[in-house]
Amino acid sequence: MTTSIVGFSLFALLVTMAPGPDTLLVLRNCMRGGPLSGVTTALGAAAGSLAWAVAAAVGLAAVLQRWDMAFTVVRLAGAAYLVFLGVQSLWAHRRGATGGPETPGEPAGPTPAAGRAFRQGLLSCLLNPKVGIFFVSVVPQFLPNGHGTFSATLIFGVIDAAIAAVWLTLVTAFAARMLTWLRRPRVNTAMERTAAGVLVLLGVGTAAETV
Predict the structure, then answer these.
(1) Quick check: helix, strand or coil at residue 100?
(2) Phi-psi domain of 105 (left: phi exceeds 0; alpha: psi -120 through 50; beta: other)
(3) 19, 122 in Cβ contact below 8 A?
(4) Which residue ranges make up each domain of the chain?
């Protein structure tokens, strides 16, 4: 079991480190609300990952994988949510930019409350069916002999959620050390527009994918 846990942990770490919507949301919310917003976003994403692990353990993710219509609905909902976040970010930043000169060191966009940041991270992960497919397709390759699929999947789910929480928290800590620079008007504007644009592109790309 130890060998399986180590192997899965390394694989999950590599997957988690790949930049994606969760990383963008953590960076954006950290820029706007500081380290607390970044950490709560990270915890929300980790909670979403754990929820997918539970779904995989009881077989829901496998059903989703086989039922094309359900997979498509969840995928399109996730795509719409990413586009919504991106457009909302662009609109809020545009309104802030027309409201007067920005002050260096202050966030240009609206500051997300901790609860809202957590929900954004949670929904970003829950509306990404690929996370569920990850557990269905990858976890069986690491299942040790003599251990139940249900319990082992839950264990791997907890490990994956913990890795996601730690990695995204480290991303938050890195961003927090650079907040003064990141919140300079020109840098902040460029980062906000880039993050919003990437979220929209990710949403459009997700919607355009063929199953």
Answers:
(1) coil
(2) left
(3) no
(4) 2-208
Q: Exposure pattern of 143-176 as b/e (b: 16+ CB <10 Å)?
A: beeeeeeeebbbbbbebbbebbbebbbebbeebb
What pTM, to 2 d.p., does this model score? 0.70
> Quick one: which of 33, 24, 41 has its CA closest to 118?
41
Distance of CA 189 to the CA centre of its chain: 22
pLDDT in tens, 73-129: 766 776 787 777 777 767 666 655 544 444 444 444 556 678 889 998 998 888 887
The 3 state secondary structure assigned to 70-97 is: HHHHHHHHHHHHHHHHHHHHHHHHHHHH
pLDDT digits (tens, 9 = 90+) for 56-72: 888 766 665 565 666 67
Alpha carbon distance 191, 150 (integer Å):
42
Helical (H) or strand (E) element with 149: helix 149-177
Alpha-carbon Rg for the chain in angstroms: 18
Burial class (CB in 10 A: 0-12, 13-18, 19+), 187: middle
Q: For residues 158 and 53, is the Cβ–Cβ distance under 8 A?
A: yes
Look-up of token digits 């829901």:
60
